[in-house]
């Protein structure tokens, strides 16, 4: 081999070594950048998961509060309905008592009028019993 060929071979080897070194450096840089991108993506995913859990917790809290409010409203409505039913029951009882008293009074009045009519008819036909206080009685004094 001539010195010129050796020199060219040396330069070629040297160039090849530089190219390999540059390629290795570029590969390392690319690996570092890929790892950094992967880390950033992982952090973003973790952050998103955290925000998702926070949102879920907040939603759960809102739902729990809404359920509690609905339960309280239902209980209040139930109590109000119970009070109204009791009030209606008391009003109905009072009405029943008033109606019963009215009907009893009316019944006694009708009974008294019927008795008076019967006595008048008996008196007219002379079938009335002797009444010492009744001066119109035919069988009396």
TrEMBL record:
Ranges of biased composition (kind: Basic and acidic residues): 29-41, 48-57, 77-99
Polar residues composition bias: residue spans: 1-10
Region (Disordered): 1-141
Protein name, entry field: Late embryogenesis abundant protein Dc3
């Amino acid at each position: 081999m001539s010195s010129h060929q050796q020199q060219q071979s040396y330069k070629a080897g040297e160039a090849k070594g530089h190219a390999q070194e540059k390629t290795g450096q570029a590969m390392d840089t690319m690996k570092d950048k890929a790892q950094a991108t992967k880390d950033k993506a992982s952090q973003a995913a973790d952050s998103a998961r955290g925000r998702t859990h926070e949102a879920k917790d907040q939603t759960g809290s809102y739902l729990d509060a809404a359920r509690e409010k609905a339960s309280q409203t239902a209980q209040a409505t139930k109590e109000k309905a119970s009070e109204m039913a009791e009030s209606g029951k008391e009003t109905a009882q009072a009405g029943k008592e008033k109606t019963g008293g009215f009907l009893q009074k009316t019944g006694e009045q009708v009974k008294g009028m019927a008795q008076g009519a019967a006595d008048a008819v008996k008196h007219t036909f002379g079938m009335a019993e002797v009444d010492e206080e009744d001066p119109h009685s035919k069988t009396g004094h």
